[in-house]
TrEMBL record:
InterPro entries noted in UniProt: Emp24-like, GOLD_dom
Subcellular localization, as worded in the UniProt entry: Membrane
Membrane topology: Single-pass type I membrane protein
Signal peptide segment: 1-18
Protein's recorded name: ER to golgi family transport-related protein
Coiled coil: 137-174
Family: Belongs to the EMP24/GP25L family.
PROSITE patterns in alphabetical order: GOLD (PS50866)
Length: 211
């Protein structure tokens, strides 16, 4: 029993950094929170009861906490739950309005007892707009398709440039080959002309000697 009480108290101590307030077990404490539309709210609470014998705040396993949340603009009850002395509650605001959060206790035995309540309310981001998300996804898909088309155009242009480059390289190689053969032909002609001139001069000088 002592271990159970210790664990229950430890759960409440985990909320030590949260807002805490005091009230009698017969009372109900309420707070007003102004919320924007489509907003998720998560609350954590923990309650301790004053023990006159121990002169300290103790966790009572039999204590129950009722949480009531009401949209003041429409008088609609958003949350109405009863749970153990520590727990959580979650709700979403449908419209921008003031929301009243009330906490009360039950099951504390006979007579009035003093209650120390910890409350931590976290207002989260707005809920996702599915239609907006779908439009955003559609926009991204359209941009992605445009990007794919541009990439395809760039690839097609690169292939064309490679083909032009290959044609230019083939033409350059053919031109270089012709130039080489032209040089070889010139060399052959020059050698043949030199041989012919030498033979012609030889015959000419031989004729001169004979005379």
């Amino acid at each position: 029993m002592k271990l159970t009480t210790f664990l229950l108290a430890a759960q409440v101590i985990g909320l030590a950094q949260a807002l805490h307030f005091y009230f009698d077990s017969s009372e109900k404490r309420c707070f007003v929170e102004e919320l924007p539309s489509d907003t998720v709210v998560e609350g954590k609470y923990g309650a301790l009861v004053w023990d006159d014998g121990k002169q300290s705040w103790e966790a009572d396993p039999g204590l129950q906490v009722r949480v009531n949340v009401e949209d003041l603009s429409s008088a609609q009850v958003v949350v109405n739950t009863k749970g153990p002395h520590t727990g959580t509650f979650t709700f979403s605001s449908h419209e921008a309005a003031d929301h009243q959060i009330c906490l009360s206790t039950e099951g504390v035995g006979s007579g009035h007892k003093h209650v120390k309540m910890y409350l931590d309310v976290n207002v989260g981001p707005s809920k996702h707009d599915k239609e907006s998300d779908q439009r955003h996804i559609g926009t991204l898909a359209g941009k992605l398709n445009e990007l794919n088309k541009k990439v395809a155009d760039i690839q097609r242009e690169q292939r064309y440039m490679r083909e032009v480059e290959e044609q230019f390289r083939d033409l350059s190689e053919a031109t270089n080959a012709r130039a080489v053969w032209y040089c070889i032909a010139q060399i052959v002609v020059l050698v043949a002309a030199g041989v012919w001139q030498m033979r012609h001069l030889k015959v000419y000088f031989e004729d001169k000697k004979l005379r």
